[in-house]
Task: inverse folding
């Protein structure tokens, strides 16, 4: 009697939603690796945020350097920072490397050196103003050049970690959750500053601790990115002149428009929050008075609670409303409308402040998804460039992203210095000693400047045309090309 052929044995694949699963389908990212990648972004953004958000204040209020000098100093350093990024990105794209090792060499030991330099920027060497400026300039330039290699590689991994656009959206979501965690930790800074008198510690010592914890500690955490895997085949392109590589980017209209939109959004956050809260806000609740720094902490926490939760659902929301592009449009329109409304509500009384918190909380739900959407669209732009030219440009594309971010930061810092100087701000005069023009300007600067930034952002962004059908066609064609290239390589 003939035996019945045995059924082919099926192997049950581990479910990808298991929290710390180290397995995933081919071409997808296992959760353990994804969480390590997100944690590394938390660390890196702790270091970057302490520099970008607090170095200006450290210079004006701890080192007592004039606001206009600080504006030009920090603005100049960010311009230098922006200019060297395309050079770094091009060097990374041109470098010959083994398969799966295009970006990893910049994710291992380099963060230790970057962390030391970050901490050094928050040391008061008790020298003259000129000497302090020179020391800060030298440390910053060294920090920036090394940080650029890590930053381009760290974010560039997003386009190499999976060949699937939808999966990269998931990666982008978790990376921005990691960035959000860093923002949450940095938000503790004003709370600690507000309690410094009861703690009995000076701002000078506090910022040294911040530099070590957020700067050095954050960079050590960023080493976790070394656990990521490059899943997209990278073929080193033929050597071409640097300028030719840059000019080829003209074919990538989506990338250029996205970068232009980010630069035009520089007015969003041009004046750091601390100047509004420290000098214009105090709240009395139950007979207890909360100073501005403490109020800033609670304001930041309260307006971000809803948006922090919503980030976990950003990919699903994008699918429902037609893609990441629509997330950005909705977010910017809501930011404009809610900030104008909040401005007219005002902030002088506790009920007004509560109303403002509710309004800004609503607008922050889609606003906190902008980073997720921008990074996902940047990866789409890299795929589009490969589809059109046959070359992958993770390095140069992410370096240009960094360039625009840093140009934006430079414009913010220059604007801060010019505006505060124009308003006759002098940190040594204290909270009660500033000009009336300074106090009158803080509320519109805090609430309306970001709305104007959103208006400027939308002008080039709405010119981007990249439909779902186009994205699907690009993914299909690239998959076929890579499979064909793989067969040719095996046959050879």
Result:
């Amino acid at each position: 009697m003939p035996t019945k052929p045995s059924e082919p044995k099926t192997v049950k694949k581990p479910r990808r939603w298991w929290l710390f699963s180290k397995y995933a389908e081919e071409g997808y990212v296992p959760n353990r690796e994804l969480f390590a990648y997100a944690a590394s972004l938390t660390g890196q953004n702790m270091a970057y945020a302490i520099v970008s958000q607090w170095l200006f204040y450290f210079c004006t209020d701890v080192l007592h350097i004039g606001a206009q000098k600080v504006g030009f100093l920090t603005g100049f350093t960010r311009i230098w920072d922006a200019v060297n990024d395309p050079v770094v990105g091009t060097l990374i794209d041109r470098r010959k490397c083994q398969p799966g090792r295009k970006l990893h060499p910049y994710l291992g030991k380099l963060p230790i050196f970057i962390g030391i330099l970050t901490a050094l920027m928050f040391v008061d060497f008790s020298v003259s103003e000129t000497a302090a400026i020179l020391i800060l300039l030298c440390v910053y330039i060294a920090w920036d050049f090394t940080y650029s290699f890590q930053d381009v590689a760290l974010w560039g991994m997003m386009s190499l970690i999976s060949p699937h656009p939808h999966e990269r959206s998931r990666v982008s979501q978790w990376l921005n959750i990691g960035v959000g965690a860093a923002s949450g930790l940095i938000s503790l800074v004003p709370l600690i500053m507000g309690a410094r008198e009861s703690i009995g510690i000076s701002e000078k010592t506090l910022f040294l601790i911040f530099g070590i914890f957020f700067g050095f500690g954050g960079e050590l955490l960023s080493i976790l990115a070394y656990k990521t895997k490059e899943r997209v085949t990278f073929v080193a392109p033929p050597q071409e002149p640097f300028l030719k590589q840059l000019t080829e980017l003209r074919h990538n209209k989506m990338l250029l428009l996205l970068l232009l939109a980010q630069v035009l959004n520089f007015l969003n956050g041009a004046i750091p929050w601390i100047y509004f809260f420290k000098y214009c806000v105090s709240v009395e609740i139950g007979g207890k008075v909360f100073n501005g720094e403490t109020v800033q902490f609670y304001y930041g926490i309260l307006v971000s609670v809803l948006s922090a939760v919503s980030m976990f659902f950003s990919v699903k929301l994008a699918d429902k409303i037609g893609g990441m592009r629509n997330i950005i449009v909705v977010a910017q329109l809501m930011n404009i409308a809610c900030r104008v409304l909040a401005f007219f509500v005002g902030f002088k009384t506790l009920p007004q402040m509560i109303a403002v918190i509710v309004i800004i909380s609503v607008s922050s739900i889609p606003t906190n998804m902008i980073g997720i959407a921008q990074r996902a669209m940047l990866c789409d732009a890299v795929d589009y460039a490969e589809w059109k030219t046959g070359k992958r440009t993770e390095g140069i594309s992410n370096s240009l992203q960094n360039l625009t971010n840093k140009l934006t930061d430079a414009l913010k810092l220059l604007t801060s210095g010019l505006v505060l100087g124009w308003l006759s701000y002098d940190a040594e005069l204290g909270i009660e000693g500033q000009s009336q023009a300074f106090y009158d300007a803080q509320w519109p600067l805090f609430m309306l400047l970001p709305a104007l930034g959103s208006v400027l952002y939308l002008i080039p962004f709405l010119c981007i045309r990249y439909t779902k059908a186009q994205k699907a066609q690009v993914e299909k064609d690239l998959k076929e090309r890579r499979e064909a290239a793989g067969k040719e390589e095996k046959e050879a």
